[in-house]
Amino acid sequence: MARWQLDDIGWERFDAGKLDPGITRIVKAASLVEYNGGAYARHLCLVFADDPEFRASAQRWGEEEIQHGRALARWAALADPGFDFAAAFARFRDSFRVDFECSRSRRGSRTGEMVARCVVETGTSSYYRALADAAAEPVLKEICRRIAADEVRHYKLFRRTLERYRVREGVGFWRRLLVVLRRLAEARDDELACAYYAANEFNGRYDRRRCSRNYARHAFAVYREAHVAGAVKMLFKAAGLCANSRLCRAGERLAWQVMRRRALRLAALGA
């Protein structure tokens, strides 16, 4: 069961005077992606069909992801009373289709599947930490802090499972690193662009490039150097690299420079 419930949130503290329109737009998109976590949990249960212990953990993970979506959707409805979550989620599912009924991992092994999940949880934990720090609205700040803590716990679950299967399947460093790099490259796929479109720009034609750019413009603006550094450390651990090395510190600096440059470029395009 989830460790917190929607009723644990101090909804009465919502302050409309502290809303940021850009943050509201990306939160609406995030509510759709998080709520879709139940479908990913179904896929993991199929991939690990003969591992009842992990299947139970994956089901709990899916329940918590769905709750994240509900919490964000409830906040988004306060921030934008015209936001129809059910309609937006239906549009999202129609636009972004993945075969969740497949019982084979696209990563080539169960170890690879866990490496990919670690990459995703790295991204979400750093994202919600960044949102919590950037948000002035107190209820959103609380929600994002709770979600970020959940995502770190999910990362640890997947990393423990990764290590267990790595020994069993004999997956070496280079194969793990390749999965990390490929999953990072997929961050620009249709999922976030479709979610942004379904939540915010659905009255027009879906333009993947425009929606991806608009989402990234608002999302990258909330990051600070510490958030990026933490994410790089988590990625190094998932790949089997030392997170306290000179190489990791160099990776942190490079990642921050790349993100900062892109954030500035997107802000200029938006202006």
Q: What's the short story on this structure?
A:
The protein is built from 11 helices and no strands.
Number of domains: 1
Order of helices and strands: HHHHHHHHHHH
Largest sheet: none
- The appropriate CATH architecture is Up-down Bundle
**How widely separated are the two ends?**
45 Å
The count of β-strands is: 0
Report on the architecture of this protein.
The termini are far apart. This protein is mostly helical and 271 residues long. 73% of the residues lie in helices and 0% in strands. The longest helix is centred in the middle third of the chain and has 32 residues. It has a single domain, classed as Ferritin (Up-down Bundle).
List the helices and strands and how they pair.
Blueprint: H1 21-35, H2 37-47, H3 52-79, H4 85-95, H5 110-134, H6 138-169, H7 173-185, H8 190-200, H9 208-220, H10 225-239, H11 246-270
Helix pairs in contact: 1-3, 1-4, 1-8, 2-3, 3-6, 4-8, 5-6, 5-7, 5-10, 8-9, 9-11, 10-11
Key terms:
271 residues; mainly alpha; Ferritin; 73% helix; globular
